[in-house]
Amino acid sequence: MGAPGPRRLLLVSNSTLRGGGYLGHCQQHVRSFLGQKVKRVLFIPYALHDRDAYAKTAREKFESLGYGLDSIHDSPDPVEAVRKSEAIFIGGGNTFRLLKALYDNSLLQEIRKRVLEDGIPYMGSSAGTNVATFSINTTNDMPIVYPPSLQALGLVPFNINPHYLDPDVNSTHMGETRAERILQYHEEPNTPPVLGLREGAMLLVEGDKATLQGVTGARLFLRGEKPTEHEPGTDFSFLLTDGNSQKP
């Protein structure tokens, strides 16, 4: 084995787009991201209650793309499964349930080490994207269980809001918009940027380079600044620096 490569992340907003199957909208991105060196993917299904059914869905998709898939919930030793993994995929569901299970199984440090030090590819979708970031404070999910902390894997030093939804000017709904909720987060001190990833969008991180991919674009929220709109292809590398609260 040569020296480990830089961090490699594919952070997808959602696993299913209307009219397509599971991971259908991003399967070419998945294939080019994992490449030919990876033979098997370790799947972490903790975000959904029925882990067997979830693993079956994921396995069928990854096998159709040419990869074997092992689900961590089938392993007697989840930590060892992470240590031996060639690539990790964490699927969507409830972010609080997912993060609590990662803490309960003592997996955060192990996943961090494999991804940030050993350079294995990490793919997340929805909740799996949330837990890859600084914290899960900007998830859309209900807190159905209580993880010991909202701090997550921290594979990137900012937050993501998956399934980002633009305000509907014709809606009669009187609840807060997604943008208003993110603004409330930024009213708290020392809160990092939030990237609102619309459905159909994903962020590719390779080392110190971050690029917006997919078809729908994203909205970037920086504390104390007006949100900005960004098209696919945007270079978001500046978000990966520690002092990322200001654009260069």
What does this protein structure show overall?
- With 248 residues, this protein is α/β, with parallel strands linked by helices.
- It has one domain (8-240): Rossmann fold (3-Layer(aba) Sandwich), CATH 3.40.50.880.
- Helix content is 25%, strand content 21%.
- The protein has seven helices and eleven strands.
- The strands form two sheets. It has a seven-stranded mixed β-sheet with strand order 3-2-4-5-1-8-9, with helices on both faces. Strands 6-7-10-11 form a four-stranded mixed β-sheet.
- The termini are far apart.
- Its EC number is 3.4.13.21.
- One of its GO terms (molecular function) is serine-type peptidase activity.
- Residues 226-248 are annotated as: Disordered.
In brief, what are we looking at here?
By secondary structure, the chain is of the alpha/beta class. It has one domain (8-240): 3-Layer(aba) Sandwich (Rossmann fold), CATH 3.40.50. It contains 7 helices and 11 strands.
Query: According to CATH, what is the topology?
Result: Rossmann fold
Shape verdict: globular
> Radius of gyration over alpha carbons?
17 Å
The succession of helices and strands, N to C, reads EHEHEHEHHEHEHEEEEE
CATH architectural label: 3-Layer(aba) Sandwich
For the largest sheet, list the strands in their spatial order. 3-2-4-5-1-8-9
Strand content: 15-25%
Helices and strands in order:
Layout: E1 8-12, H1 27-34, E2 40-44, H2 51-64, E3 68-71, H3 78-84, E4 88-90, H4 95-104, H5 108-117, E5 122-125, H6 127-130, E6 159-164, H7 178-186, E7 194-198, E8 201-206, E9 209-214, E10 218-221, E11 228-230
Parallel strand pairs: 1-5, 2-3, 2-4, 4-5, 6-7
Antiparallel strand pairs: 1-8, 7-10, 8-9, 10-11
Catalytic activity: Dipeptidase E catalyzes the hydrolysis of dipeptides Asp-|-Xaa. It does not act on peptides with N-terminal Glu, Asn or Gln, nor does it cleave isoaspartyl peptides
GO cellular component, one term: cytoplasm
Region (Disordered): 226-248
